[in-house]
Please model this.
Amino acid sequence: MRFESPLVLVLAISSVAGCTLVIDVPPAAESDAGAGNRGGSGGSVGTGGASTGGASTGGASTGGASTGGASTGGAGGLPPGCSADCDCDGDGVQAETCGGGDCDDDDPNVFAGQDTYFPTPSLRRQFDYDCNGTSDPDPALDRRVDCTLGLVNCDEAQQGYFANAPACGVAAPWGRCKRGTLLCEQNVLDNRVMQCK
Model:
């Protein structure tokens, strides 16, 4: 079966055994527009046309900017999930990656200028809640009372640890001295945790 028209592809498939497939593509040159139309038609009818491996499958819509573009990495180099003001944990201080003073922008308790002391360490910074590189004990707790000075020097007003102040997050006996019959004695009030920032 043959057609002489240069724009027609004919598939002649017989139902009997030994059938032959005849594809007649005349050698006459076609315009780019004609070739594109023919390839698109063939793709919609058959399985090997241009629409299968063409631009619609592997083109810009699949691998273009929408997949690997700026929307994945955040605008302006911000950390993923961070708002435009670069305060990812909502503590009011910008992250260090944006030039701010927040050394852990996943923990709202950690930021430069933090003035609260904590009894437990942070997840990433231990007891450096104020981002100054050190663990600073609470001055209200960082003191000691000495009840070994005898009755004459027994100070019953001051409170503190009976030994040196413990490490951050560690509990130790806390109290004051009291006058006994013969000695200045320890009056333990509680076990108090050293808080730091």
In short: Residues 137-197 form one domain. Residues 32-45 form the longest helix (14 residues).
